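Annex B, item 7. Sequence and structure tokens for protein A, then protein B.
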Amino acid sequence: EGISSAYAVGRMAEKTNVELVVYVEDAMARQMVLSSLDSERRRRTLIIEVGSHSAVISQAAAKFVDRSHDQCEAAFFLDGDQRAALATHKGRFLGLVDQRKKEDASKWFDDRVGFLPSDQMPERFVVSILREKHVPRFCEVFGLENDLEAAEMLDKALVRGDHSEIFWLSEDLILPREQVWQQMCAVLAQEDSALLDNVRSHIDRLLFG
């Protein structure tokens, strides 16, 4: 599930100057991670979307099995709403690897698998934070008439919600969904950088040792 193409891309990264390959669920997660990194870290990191939380765990198991051949480190991020299922994800990972190496595998997993901020899906988390704390900045970035219009737009997206918040905002803003999400992640990184500290610190532990 998601191993073949993503694994091949990860292998190709070893032939470049990439030092860390980061596996995430989807494009939304990839943009959030990118937004948390400065230019130096972006140059040294390759972020690969694999499609689902299950595929992230499959990638982790494949990388553990083949770790002796790796020339660069690997990190894995699950969306925040998967945090409550950590034990389940770890159990599945351990079931995919050589049981004689279970103890080593457990530590390897703990060192490399992390979560995006909060216990919510990334889209809902970012929309909620911007609605709660950064309405004027949202208004400014997207050229809206006033803060009231911005707040109503964010409220509407949260009500419609459940993984479709950015779709509804893109409809209301008449902008591509990818552009809306990129700019919202940028606002979060600029205005509330500390909320992304766990992402940076997880990457830094593997990138800088």
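Protein B:
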Amino acid sequence: GNDIDLDGIITAKKLTLNAVDTITFNGSLTSNDNVTATAATETVNASLAAHALAFDTTGNFLLGSNGSLVATNDSSIDAGGVVQLDGVINSPNANFDISGSAATSNPAIIVTGNETAKSFDFEAASGDFLLGSTGALNATFDPKINASSGVVTINGTINSPNANFDISGAAAASSPAVIVNGIETAKSFDFEAAAGDFLLGSTGALNTT
């Protein structure tokens, strides 16, 4: 259909959802198999738990502040628009691939929630990456943040003492491509400013283990 609104509680095995316009999860979902959702825009305002989760949108994806994603196997969010994570990812055994896109100088991926996975691979195909001041990234195996044509700003917390963290951004010459204003912990950091500069702000700290 054009829209799919899921307001009740769902327990299923394998679940595949396709909508022309929107898919909205307002009720909890539990599956012991794969869950796939494809639409123009998608919103998750409830707890979704599955073997693996795959979200595919031509527009925006929103994990609302009351939403949570729990997966035991590798999962993905692939958005043609903005990915905004205000809720929680609690998937310590899963790798999460997350991609978004936005106009120049606008965030393609915004993280303000507390996110946990085995690893994250964030890809801002266009636009910027923003870890907000309330956001946190917790990973155990070599996460990556890449804004191939935008700025990476880390105002929140990275807490990944056993992981090597790769972060790359791009900006005009003499402008910051990677900005760190939070307190960050990892086994190691690899910062790359493909164009532009690296800025560790006055409130920022880098701790390696």
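Comment on protein B: The longest strand covers residues 88-101.
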